[in-house]
Design a protein that fits this description.
The chain has about 575 residues and is of the alpha/beta class. It is built from 21 helices and 20 strands. It is an enzyme of class 2 (transferase).
Length: about 575
């Protein structure tokens, strides 16, 4: 008799003939181009990873999930999975409309029958789902909810036509049914899954060995390669790290497979969600870590979740999830014994050695030694390829401030000083110049300003990725947009925000272009500082006021900041 974890699970794909017919019909349907997060969600809906969901949540299901972690039929489901869209797209959609869901190249992946359309209470969603301050944008998912996700939610069943195409690590990507078939073929009755979004180091290896022994199970290393936390090591590097250490595991009892999941970093709820997803992939046991899927610290510097909140919530729902929890013992290296121990089993008098993620990043950034007791040489080699010492990385200096504050002048001086030093190509992306060459069709509404700043951010991230220096000098009045640019750039290198904090009275006194005068007369609408707000940066890398200091001094302060960040050497 086939075991529960080996039997096929329902998928949402239609037959090839039905898919061909639906593709023909799709030409007359409204089309939605999916965001990267929505593509991850749709793939796991279609292949059964999100079973028992049959599509994006209806309003009733959404309300049940937000308030009680339950679908309207009573099934346990902790995470809202909705198609968030713009008001403009939602405008003409009536319940009963079919829409074509396409990837970013326009390839049709699925048809969705819209049954529900509503404006969600995002504040309540943030509070209930993430259990954090509803407006605390230090949580990446709360920031996404308020500043990235569309304002209208659509719900309804999905018919899958084809899976999204992945050109990377194709042999490592398995659907739930492919893994279940593999376990059946290999006779794996018990499978313990290790969830990770980080490279594997020696402590992880020891932990996974112990977990597999404790559960007397085979091991599936199942890293997330969809969207993780901004600032995480990119998945290409991580998968190369996993492959580099796979031969440290017994081949007969260990497998590596990649999961295209968009994480929400929702701590306890995320742990339950991960358990359900892994059950669908054929797991019988699941390792739940200390502060599992936690996003770190909130805006007050306190962890969003308690270290064992996730384990407690998982344990409470373990029977319903259908997967047994193996709780994570935080592993530390004991110097005298030259081996790893769970932190609660350290021999008396033992010297504990540990390197935090922050310390690891510092050592990579500064080109310092990473000891062999901490990680494998093969992993360190891969990490150093992606994260060379900061003095060899590309970076972006992002000036922000009111019109007339001196941003462009200081940026120009900085550019000349950096070019004088040499070593890396320097590009200045001045607000006026970018508007002329990249954004000439845009106006000055909030939407258009955001588009303009994101274009600047995209160009800066490409320059940074390729080892150059980008200097940006737009007004950039909105916090959320500046954060989006920071996240774009920090995937590839460092980001230094410089707030040119010259007071508006001084900016208006200078008024070189006569803009303030026109704004005061009402001839320029939505002018920053007069009829439109400027949201001051809370924690810029540097704040300078050009009222009191000259341009050369201001530029030199930026250089000193860059030196302190390890990006350049002045001495």
């Amino acid at each position: 008799m086939t075991q529960a974890n080996q039997a096929p699970i329902p998928e949402l794909y239609v037959s090839p003939d039905a898919a061909a017919a639906l593709k023909d019909e799709a030409g007359n349907m409204p089309s939605w181009d999916l965001t990267p997060r929505q593509i991850c969600d749709l793939e796991l809906l279609m292949n059964g990873g999100f079973y028992p969901l049959k599509g994006f949540l209806t309003e009733a299901d959404y309300n049940g999930v937000v308030n009680d972690m339950r679908l309207s039929d009573g099934s346990l489901w902790p995470m809202p999975i909705n198609l968030d869209v713009s008001e403009k797209f939602a405008e003409g959609l009536e319940p009963g409309t079919d829409i074509a869901l396409r990837d970013q190249e326009g390839v049709i992946l699925a048809i969705m029958s819209v049954t529900d359309k509503w404006l969600p209470n995002k504040k309540l969603e943030a509070e209930k789902v993430f259990g954090a301050g509803a407006d605390d944008l230090a949580h990446p998912a709360i920031n996404y909810l308020h500043n990235v996700a569309g304002p209208v939610y659509l719900g309804g069943p999905v018919k899958g036509l084809q899976a999204p195409t992945h050109y990377d690590f194709r042999g490592r990507r398995d659907t739930p049914n492919e893994l279940r078939a593999q376990f059946k073929k290999l006779g794996w009755r018990k499978v313990v899954v290790f969830q990770t979004r980080n490279p594997l180091h020696r402590a992880h290896q020891e932990l996974t060995f112990r977990a597999a022994r404790e559960a007397q199970a085979n091991l599936l290393i199942h890293p997330v390669v969809g969207m993780t936390k901004p600032g995480d090591v990119d998945h290409f590097t991580r998968v190369r790290c996993y492959e580099a250490v796979l031969d440290k595991y017994p081949a007969a009892t260990t497998s590596l497979s990649l999961l295209n999941l968009a994480m929400r970093m929702a701590g306890p709820r995320e742990a339950v969600w991960h358990g359900i997803i892994r059950r669908n992939h054929g797991a019988t046991h699941f390792i739940v870590g200390r502060d599992h899927a936690g996003p770190g610290k909130n805006s007050k510097g306190v962890d969003f979740y308690g270290p064992y909140d996730a384990q407690e919530l998982f344990k409470k729902h373990e029977d319903e999830i259908g997967v047994q929890m193996v709780d994570f013992k935080h592993m530390v290296y004991v110097q005298e014994k030259a081996q790893y121990y769970p932190v609660n089993e350290v021999p008396e008098g033992g010297t504990v050695l540990d390197i935090s993620g922050t310390e690891l990043r510092r050592r990579l950034r500064e080109g310092l030694d990473i000891p062999e007791w901490f990680s494998f040489p093969e992993v360190v080699t891969q990490l150093r390829r992606t994260s060379p010492p900061r003095a060899r990385q590309g970076f972006t200096v992002f000036f922000t401030g009111l019109s007339g504050s001196g941003k462009s002048t200081v940026a120009n001086a900085l550019m000349v000083k950096l070019m004088e030093m040499g070593g890396r190509p320097v590009t200045l992306l001045d607000g006026d110049v970018v508007r002329k060459h990249l954004s000439s069709e845009l106006g000055f509404s909030k939407e258009h300003r955001d588009i303009n700043i994101k274009r600047i951010g995209y160009v800066a991230s490409e320059i940074t990725k390729n080892g150059g220096i980008a200097i940006c000098a737009p007004i950039a009045p909105y916090t959320a947009t500046r954060r989006a640019v920071r996240e774009m750039v920090e995937q590839y290198g460092a980001f230094a925000e410089v707030h040119v904090s010259t007071p508006i009275e001084e900016c208006e006194r200078r008024d070189r272009k006569g803009l303030y005068k026109l704004a005061r007369e009402g001839k320029i609408k939505e002018f920053t500082g007069i009829s439109d707000p400027y949201e001051e940066p809370q924690k810029p890398e540097l704040r300078v006021d050009t009222t009191e200091i000259d341009v050369d001094n201001a530029a030199h302060q930026v250089l000193l900041t860059l030196e302190n960040m390890g990006l350049i050497g002045l001495r």
